Amino acid sequence: MLATAGVDIGSTTSKAVVMVDERIVSHVIGASSTNPSRTAEQIFEAALGQAGIARAEIACVVGTGYGRTRVTFADLDISEITCHGRGASFLHPAARTVLDIGGQDTKVISIDDRGNLLDFAMNDKCAAGTGRFLEAMARSLEMPVASMADEYFREGSPCTISSMCSVFAESEVINLIHDGVPLPCIVKGLLQSLANRVSAQVRRVGVTEQVVMTGGVAKNAGVRHALSAKLGVPVAVCAGIDPQVVGAVGAAVLAADQVMKRRGKG
Ligand code: ADP
Questions:
Q1: Tens digits of residue pLDDT in 71-115
Q2: Residue having the nearest C-alpha atom to atom 23 of ligand 1
C-alpha cells in the first residue's frame, strides 16, 4: 500500500487530501487561520481520521499553498502552481490550461499531457478577478457567494460594471441597488466583469483546450459560464471532486511520485 497526503494552506481555506494507491480516500476543507501550522496539523488529522489511516502509514506529505512552509510535518513543500497543474492533470487528463481562482489570487497554468508546468501567469496584486472580489460584491448584495450562480442564470440582461477596481465596483453595485436594478442583472454584470479580467490573463498564457477550472471560485457555475463565453471554449471542472481540493490532490500525487523516485521506480 502506498499512502500519501497533500496539505494546501490557502489564504482563505485550508485543504487536506489522503491518497492510497492513486485513489483519493479522504478530503477535508476548513478555514485558514492566523496560525497556519496549527491549521495544517488540524486539517491533516481530520483527513487521516476520515480515511481511517494512521499517521505512521503515510509515506510522504507534501505541503502547498500560501502557507506551505508552515506545514512543519511535511516532507517537502511545492508551489501551488505545480500542484494545481498536477492535480488537474491527474483528475482530468485532457487538461492543458488550468485556471485556479482562489481567495486572494488567480493563476493561469499551462501544462503538458503529463501535468508538467509549461508556463503560467499570476495575478496576486489586485482583488478584481479573485474570490475576494466576489465576496465583497456578495456582501454588498447581502447574499451568500454560493447563491450568485442562481441569480446569474435567472432572466435579465447584464448591466455594465465599468470600474476595474473592486472598491469602486462596490460603489457601483450599491448605486445599482439604489436605482432598483434587478439582482440577476447586477450579478450577471459582476460575473462578466470578473470573466473579462480573468480571460485577459488567460490569453497571455494562451487558450489551449481543455481549459479546466480549479479553486473555490470554480464552484460557481455562473463564473464558469461567463468565462467560457468570453474565451469561446468550454470551461470544465474535474468530475466527482470539489474543485477547491485539486491543489491538495496534486500535492498528494507529487508526494507519491517522490516515494516512487526514492524506491527507484520514478
Ligand atoms: P485559497 O487557496 O486562496 O484559500 P480557495 O481555492 O480555497 O482559495 O478558494 C477560496 C475562495 O473560493 C473564497 O474567495 C471563496 O469565497 C470562494 N468560494 C467558495 N465557494 C464558492 C462558490 N460557491 N462560489 C464562488 N466562490 C466561492
A1: 999 999 999 999 999 999 999 999 999 999 999 999 999 999 999
A2: 146
> 52-70 as b/e, with b when 16 or more CB fall inside 10 Å?
ebeeeebbbbbbbbbbbeb
**Is 103 within 8 Å of 12 (Cβ atoms)?**
yes
Nearest CA to ligand 1 atom 22: 146
pLDDT per position as a tens digit, 183-196: 999 999 999 999 99
* Secondary structure element (H or E) that encloses residue 254, with its range: helix 246-262
Confidence check: pLDDT of 169 > 90: no
> Is residue 209 lining ligand 1, measured as CB closer than 6 Å?
no
Does residue 250 contact residue 85 with C-beta atoms inside 8 Å? yes
Give the separation between CA 214 and CA 151, rounded to whole angstroms: 22
Q: Ligand 1: distance of its center to the CA of 102 in Å?
A: 5
Q: Is the pTM of this model over 0.90?
A: yes
